[in-house]
Amino acid sequence: MKRTDSNAEPADALALRALVWTLSEPDRASRLVSLTGLDPDDLRARITEPGVLAASLMFLEQYEPDLIACAGDLAVKPEALVRARHELEAR
Questions:
Q1: Cα dihedral value 77, 86, 56, 42, nearest 10
Q2: What is the extent of the structural domain holding 38?
Q3: Distance from C-alpha of 30 to C-alpha of 40, rounded to nearest angstrom
């Protein structure tokens, strides 16, 4: 697991927490499935893949109110979510 500094949460762990947050609200979960093309079974099967986690973070980035709300609920800066996506895409 790649970290940007000694206190940073691993990108995949942060992305997984953000994905759980995204899926916790039915309308937002439906938008994620619709926009990413992942069906629920595919999402379950591939939930730990860096590409899927990066796509879920990109989904949040595309709608700033969700990005900010997710970051607030996870007690991280929105920039941490963006940085995690970049790290996951580099894998």
A1: -150
A2: 11-89
A3: 10
* pLDDT tens profile 10-37: 999 999 999 999 999 999 999 999 998 8
The answer to whether position 6 is within a domain reads no
The count of structural domains within the chain is 1
Q: Which pLDDT belongs to residue 63? A: 95
Residue 69 in domain: yes
pLDDT value at position 6? 45
Q: 48-80 burial by CB neighbour count: b if 16+ within 10 A, else e?
A: eebebbbbbbbbbeeeeebbebbbeebebebeb
Could you tell me the pTM of the whole model? 0.88
Instruction: Provide the percentage of residues in the chain whose pLDDT is more than 90.
Output: 81
Structural domain includes residue 40: yes
Residue at 41 is within a domain: yes
